[in-house]
Design a protein that fits this description.
Layout lengths: L2 H14 L3 H14 L4 H10 L3 H14 L4 H18 L32 H8 L2 H9 L4 H9 L5 H50 L8 H20 L3
Length: 236
């Protein structure tokens, strides 16, 4: 038996024996090595202590495989349970919603910010943070992300607050990378320019042949411009 299978089996046995803490530790090790292991996520959902945590595990499975029937059924039941507790009609959780979370009915105005949302709605909206981060990293416009979440029934201001918070984190990580590219471009272009000057000087006073380092100059300038534009667009 492989290490992964052994860890998974130990996690299942710990879960069956009632030791959920140990089961979580073992299953977390499996998921760390194989983040797309549906069985590990499913078992981990059983080991969690709250419906919110269980639902997050199930939604992760549906991101990996939207046709996992067991995850679909369990997620649907948890959604119905939450809706009944809040006194709202349940929102269906369909097979096609692999990377979507069913949003609660809109019970507050669009001007309500994230900090002022009822706890259940705020928790549901904050559950989208990872997906918002992925969309922004993939180049999706913030306006589009806001519109998509607003259509799910969340107040616009709260959605804009969440997207702004995630964007700041994304930009704080991207900004330094663009600055490095900009600085690298300066050095490469400068190297090309200096090498060209030295080559011309040698040609005049020594050999009569010189080289223009077009490649370094062009690559350096491209890196500098791309880094500058990226840094300006992604400043935290």
């Amino acid at each position: 038996m492989s290490l992964m299978a052994d860890l998974l089996q130990q996690g299942v046995e710990a879960l069956e024996s009632g030791d959920k803490a140990q089961a979580r530790r073992l299953l977390a090790r499996v998921i760390k090595r194989d983040p797309r292991n549906e069985q590990a996520w499913l078992c981990l959902s059983d080991a969690m202590g709250s419906d919110v945590e269980r639902l997050r595990c199930l939604e992760r499975i549906l991101e990996i495989n939207p046709h996992n029937q067991e995850a679909v059924l369990r997620a649907s039941k948890l959604r119905q349970k939450q809706a009944q507790r809040l006194g709202k009609p349940p929102v269906p959780f369909g097979l096609g919603e692999s990377s979507e979370r069913a949003a609660p009915d809109r019970v507050v105005s669009d001007s309500c910010g994230l900090a002022n949302l009822p706890a259940e709605q705020r928790e549901a909206l904050e559950g989208y943070a990872r997906l918002v981060c992925r969309d922004l990293l993939n180049g999706k416009k913030r306006k589009t992300v806001v519109e998509e979440l607003t259509k799910r029934g969340f107040p616009r201001q709260a959605v804009e607050d969440l997207v702004s918070d995630v964007a700041r984190v994304v930009n704080s990580r991207r900004g330094p990378a663009y600055r490095k590219r900009m600085v690298r471009g300066v050095f490469v272009a400068l190297f090309g320019a200096v090498a060209t000057v030295i080559s011309v000087w040698l040609a005049v006073y020594v050999e009569g042949i010189f080289f223009v380092w077009y490649g370094a100059i062009v690559v350096g300038l491209v890196d500098f411009v791309a880094g500058l534009l990226g840094w300006l667009m992604h400043r935290a």
